[in-house]
Design a protein that fits this description.
- Helices cover 37% and strands 29% of the residues.
- It is globular, with a radius of gyration of 15 Å.
- It has a five-stranded mixed beta sheet, sandwiched between helices.
- It has one domain: Gcn5-related N-acetyltransferase (GNAT) (Aminopeptidase).
- It contains four helices and five strands; from the N terminus they run E-H-H-E-E-E-H-E-H.
Length: 145
């Protein structure tokens, strides 16, 4: 397994993985490759993009990406997407990818990482096992239009 930063030529592999993964269980979201590209390319083209992927001989099997942004006198990282190919889940690849991301961000002087995830998905427990925790006093609010 080779973990490296995502560059533009590798983005299409991430798009295909994203579309296939999130169209299946447990998400069952109607992602097309075009829509997945639109989403991931938006983050890639955004200021402060940082992304890491895990590749093996078959191609991309996992990735995580987001953007660094100003926060008071430091920088924070908004983890926008993380995706592990279903056949590779529960094998430590996601953990290895996040540990690599943590190291890269810490070396860059970032103060924190934040993300959004659903309490009902396995991802919530995964992040908690790695040391992520709910922000004290914070609650995500939405307004449906």
């Amino acid at each position: 397994m080779n973990i490296k930063q995502i560059t533009e030529p590798q983005l299409q592999e991430c798009v295909q993985l994203y579309q296939q993964t999130f169209s299946g269980e447990p998400w069952n979201e109607p992602w097309t490759e075009e829509r997945a590209f639109e989403r991931l390319n938006h983050f890639y083209q955004s200021r402060g993009f940082i992304g890491l992927g895990a590749w093996n001989e078959e191609g991309c099997c996992a990735f995580t990406l987001g953007n660094r942004e100003p926060f008071l006198d430091r920088q924070a990282f908004y983890l926008r997407e993380m995706c592990v190919k279903p056949d590779f889940q529960r094998q430590g690849i996601g953990r290895r990818l996040l540990v690599a991301l943590h190291g890269l961000l810490k070396e860059s002087g970032l103060a924190r990482i934040y993300l959004l995830t659903n309490h009902d998905y396995a991802a919530y427990d995964f992040y908690k096992k790695i040391g992520y925790k709910p922000a004290d006093g914070m609650e995500m609010l939405i307004y449906r239009l």
